[in-house]
């Protein structure tokens, strides 16, 4: 008897088909929802709140879905804007991929992302060569549904993208906006990466000694002007006092002044606290991005 398919982690939205109890009509069941248990017994909560369950041994098929229903074009729009807002200190377009290099920065600034609908895996050998010339590992940032790949490719890292319509909210405390990062900014992100943006504008928000955040307005592939929130940080002893919310409110106001209508944040899947913070300030999860070693696909 074939082995049942491997299941994603709890919390992922899936489409799942399973065998029902002998004699049932129809003999198979289908459910779309979020995984809430993945042991010998599998439970999936559908959008109406009903929890469907079956044995893992009876699962016939499972497919990961985005956090909520969304068109590919919507994913491409925000990912295009996000890549232009965090392009590293050097970038290059290659066959629908944006290649980014930012030595000393995070994976996002040192990865290639497929943004054109015709981007293909045939470009990967050239991507590997481009990063080799810079003594950097060839990392791919692959958003859900923008490039068809095997699910079993091991991920180096995974992020979740949250989105929202921008709203006008007055910060509860005074927030300082500057064109360059101030001395408060941590040194773990190189300045040339922090200030880099392609065909857009960037600003740095701070509550001196307490909180900070970066905002960038860039255009998506469909013409939508997006505000990206990155590097939002609050001093450990000042958290849960509204300072992070104030930073986000000030950046939203700045983004609206610069023509943005929608906002996004990209957070590590391994940090549910950060995800919960952005949910609390009005963002909603949309899709995930997997960071992969290009050599595993070559």
From TrEMBL:
<protein>
    <submittedName>
        <fullName>GNAT family N-acetyltransferase</fullName>
    </submittedName>
</protein>
<dbReference type="InterPro" id="IPR000182">
    <property type="entry name" value="GNAT_dom"/>
</dbReference>
<dbReference type="Pfam" id="PF24553">
    <property type="entry name" value="Rv0428c_C"/>
</dbReference>
<dbReference type="Pfam" id="PF24551">
    <property type="entry name" value="SH3_Rv0428c"/>
</dbReference>
<dbReference type="InterPro" id="IPR056935">
    <property type="entry name" value="Rv0428c-like_C"/>
</dbReference>
<feature type="domain" description="N-acetyltransferase">
    <location>
        <begin position="161"/>
        <end position="298"/>
    </location>
</feature>
<dbReference type="InterPro" id="IPR056934">
    <property type="entry name" value="SH3_Rv0428c"/>
</dbReference>
<dbReference type="InterPro" id="IPR016181">
    <property type="entry name" value="Acyl_CoA_acyltransferase"/>
</dbReference>
